[in-house]
Amino acid sequence: MTRTVWFNCCAGVAGDMLLASLIDAGADRLAVMDAWGALGVDGFAATWERVQRCGVASLWTNLAIDDHAHDPGDSGHGDHGHGHGHDDHGHPHRPASEVIALIAGAELPAPIRANATAVYRALAKVEGAIHGMDPDDVELHEVGALDSILDVVGVCAALHSLGLDTISYSPIAVGHGTVETAHGTLPNPVPAVSRLLAEAHATTVGVDTTMELSTPTGVALLTVLGEGCGPMPSFEVSSTGFGAGTADPPGRPNVVQAIVGTAPTGSSADGGRPCHLVETNVDDVTGEVLAHTISALIDVGAHDAWATPIVMKKGRPAHTVHALCDDAAFDAVRSVLVNETGTLGVRASLVQRWPQLRRDAVVEVDGQRVRVKLGAGRVKVEHDDALAAATALGLALREVIYRAEQLGREFAD
Fold first, then answer.
1. Predicted pLDDT of residue 42
2. For the chain, which ranges sit under pLDDT 50?
3. CA 30 → CA 33, 35, 103, 105, 147, distances in Å?
4. Are 211 and 254 in contact (CB under 8 A)?
5. Both 148 and 9 in a single domain?
6. Are residues 252 and 292 in the same domain?
7. Would you say the pTM of this structure is higher than 0.90?
8. Which residues contact 287 (CB under 8 A, 6 or more apart)?
9. Distance between CA 385 and CA 257 in Å, rounded?
10. Cα–Cα distances in Å, from 182 out to 78, 81, 141, 304?
């Protein structure tokens, strides 16, 4: 069985809300506390309290920070208000390199440490792009504060305690107008959020409010650790939880919903999962358009997409474009086939698929983030990540793939 969680972010997302939703759904809060203890920081206290948000019973992460306590990495430049409506703690800022070193030096399980580090590298990357600086030199304000570090490490520990294989999320709600941050008055959503969303090709939902519904910490956790954005996948629900934001606006519950479940996997005839095979034949489409169509099909939720060369009537060379998808993505897949290829017809059939158990992880090759898929006796490296790392490091692609595979085996062991 594949264990998965899908986050419903119809009211936005923040790190503390994700953490509370996972604990409400059954994550081990003691595992979260142990991960926090491994950081070697003090001066904070956390409780989880039952609250109501617009009539929805939910769990709220009440994290109290003593600004004068020991905090490795605290650069001592003072506090800054956050004002996003989800939490409102003090915010000393520190270089991204210090935050990453703090996490890297903690005695955490390898998956927790790797995932938390990947989240902060992504935050440093987008902040560096925004300010025109090297990511390691970026001063992290709100996301570099102790409460945000605890949120990131806590979420990674909660996910680990649930034994999840995959993570996905709904379209993410965002507000409009402006918000007050440590950098001054910024557009809503803030630049870091918009860049993270763009890099993940995530879908948003606009809400008529000037509240900062989605924070950089929350969006980074989803876009870095999640497989993608879309409707709730097909699985058997085992638990659900609601994580509350601090604010309680009228008219809509300020919560993140976590839905945990299992889906069958295996190779026997008894474990197959129904799936649509959607196809069309085209004889007037260029290779570039075919490649774009395949990418677009994957983007809208197809499990796989490919093209097969064929010969049509009168000896015309042509291609069949195929896509595998669930019910939830069927209409979008069919639309892409029609719109991108200009075909005059699409056909579909119901088939069975037996996806093998796998899970995703993130490894670092000389500081470069590379995603890997872990299966039975196999580590599959994400090609685009390996190519980007090879380019950045000036290494051969095969060397980066080899090193990423070796690091990935540490997760599989």
1. 87
2. 70-91, 266-270
3. 5, 9, 19, 21, 18
4. no
5. yes
6. no
7. no
8. none
9. 30
10. 10, 7, 6, 43
